[in-house]
Each structure stands twice: as C-alpha cells, then as structure tokens.
Amino acid sequence: MSDETFDEVTSLRTRLEELRSEHRDLDEAIARLSQAPGDDELMLRRLKKRKLALKDRIAAIEHLLTPDERA
To answer: Coiled-coil region(s) at which residues (predicted)?
Structure first.
C-alpha cells in the first residue's frame, strides 16, 4: 500500500467516525425533540432528513473501505 493510499484510507476512516458520531448525536436530538411537549414537526423532519443523508454517506464510505471479494 502506497503512502498516498494509506493517507486516503486513514482520512476516510476518520471521516467515517465523524459521520457516525454526528449520526448518533442526531439520533439523541431527535429522541429528545420528539418527547418534548409541542414538538417542532418541521425541525424533526429536518433532523430526520439530515440523519438519513448521513446514513447514506456512512454506507458509501463503508463500501469504499470494504475490500472486494475475489471470485
């Protein structure tokens, strides 16, 4: 593995952990907001949409980091 490839993989793994952390934070925020009296439906929808986008980005990075299986 070249230094450039190693740096790219390291960068992707770092970004993956950041996205996972943000995803967990959004999950907690959504849970708190949905339990609050007078929920803010618009904010809830925005947070859920952001969480879904993060999930998609996480899946894409995981796919990049998963080695191809040999047939």
So the answer is: 2-64
